[in-house]
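REQUEST ID: PR-0412
SUBMITTED BY: lab tech R.K.
PRIORITY: routine
TASK: structure prediction, single protein chain
INPUT:
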Amino acid sequence: MGNFLLAFEGFKGNTAIGFVAVLAIILFATKFFGILFRRIGLPQVLGYIIAGILVGPSIFGELFYKWFGGGFCFIGFEDGGYISLLSLPKENALEIFAKIGVLLLMFSTGLETNLKELKSTGLAAVLMATAGVAVPLLLGFLISLPFGNIGLGFSDQTRIFRGIFIGTILTATSVAITVSVLKELGKINTKLGTTIISAAIIDDVIGIVLLSVVTGIAKGKAGIAENANGFEAFKSTIYGTVIMIVCFFVFAVLAGFVISKLFKWMDKRWPTHHRIPIFAMAVCFGYSWIAEEIFGVADITGAFLAGVVLSTDIRASRYTDRQVEVDTYTVFAPAFFANIGISSISFAKLDPRILLFALLAVLLGLIGKIVGCGAICKAFKYSWRESAIGGVGMMARGEVALIVTSAVINTETLGEYALSPDFMIMTVLLILVSSILTPVLLKVLYGKEKPNAIPPVEPPTAPTEMPKSAEPPAQTIEN
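STATUS: complete
OUTPUT:
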């Protein structure tokens, strides 16, 4: 089949007006597929990624070119022998929008963190979250060791880092699906339901800290390879990396104390005023830049901690979250998720061995949550069925898993230790499978719950006429 190319000079994504066209295509596609996936009971983020795959070069560009000798796509790169409809350079506005999107997503997650509730959840939720991180992390690391020949590293050092990255991806938990199912079943306010939700929140906190530590050390090792000097050389050593991570968290807490006081003062002075979310977003971006550029910590960690700092003022943080969500989920989040499908998944070049590894990793990721979290529930005297519910409730994955994956495939910061973008397919499958199985298994497990015994009801007796003296007084309307 002959080549068929759709390309128009002047209609390029690396110009201002060309990017407007790119953004229009992304917004239409992500909204359409987001609604479609929500209608069939799956997370909208999966629809966003599918939209990115369809408008990007993966299928109608690379795959068509491989099969038919020609192809076209809406958004892509001038590579592989075909010309895309919208040609984007490596550094483009879409990457910038995607970066803003991921920072705002993590910032919103931090804003929704209630520190008082976390303090009151008790030992069960903390241990459950810890096991929910440790077991999938260990299983992900172990399953990666035999797969060095598919891009997980041949040297011991590279293999260790990439194995830990795989395990870190498997640790993330999404509480949104579990919350919706528990609400539907009327179990959201039960002791077990509260424990699951609290554990899921703590799970993400532990996972983000773990990501910062591991990527920080990997950046340090990559810095040594690049012959860094001065302060950069200090940060590139393992002990320097650990010191900088500790210093960042100390800075975040101390600066956060002052910022939190200022945030509360602004809320009292100008409640529900637009200057509050503007100030909050400035704190988010400031924390992100300081984390990445000064301390060598992942920028998403800075955004998350900025949200946690501002979450101490419940009213102002909720108002800010509502305002930030409008921009995040209208423009920036769709750009981030679509960009994953556009730039990170290539079906034409996908190694079948990576797909096999992805399936095995997904299986172990699901088992790790069920076994780790379920074992903690059992240790706290829950029944076998309740322990299974606790494990399944922690099984769902979502946005955080995608954010972690995006961080560990970044070759600009991690160098040779970064994972190949092909491993993004593992995260997409993990979200897809867990999103389908979690509500199904929760409903099955709760369906086996024995109903409480209902006392017998006395047969109704014939109504007797109420004496006039017992009639209720006429209602009056008060002004």
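NOTES: The chain has 19 helices and no strands.
REVIEWED BY: pending
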